[in-house]
Amino acid sequence: MAKGRDKELIKLRDEALCRRYYYWTERQRLRFDDALKILSEREFFISEERIMAIIRHKIRTGEAERIQAPQKVKKPRLTNDQLSLFPEL
């Protein structure tokens, strides 16, 4: 049994960290330093320096492009015509 942290769990954490960094910087349009603070203090509980090292490593090795963003859950949209099919309560 190898000692230390599980490499697969670290890999999954790093991928999740990159997805969350993308979310905060691109979707929520936060500045990178604000996104780092959120990731460090609220989500992953590791230092901002370590987060930047992980992101830089993923970019350098080209792994950042292979990380798939989670699929959006599509909500059905109902039109007025569809709603009129249901009797009023």
Question: Your description of this structure?
Answer:
It is a single chain. α1 (7-27) crosses α2. This protein has a domain at 7-66. By secondary structure, it is an all-alpha fold. The chain contains five helices and no strands. It is elongated, with a radius of gyration of 20 Å.
Total DSSP helices: 5
Tell me how many strands there are: 0
Order of helices and strands: HHHHH
Structural class: mainly alpha
Shape: elongated
Average pLDDT metric: 85
Give a brief description.
The protein is mainly alpha-helical. Helix content is 62%, strand content 0%.
Please give a handful of descriptors for the protein shown:
mainly alpha; 89 residues; elongated; single chain
Q: How are the SSEs placed, and which strands pair?
A:
Elements: H1 7-27, H2 32-43, H3 48-61, H4 63-66, H5 80-83
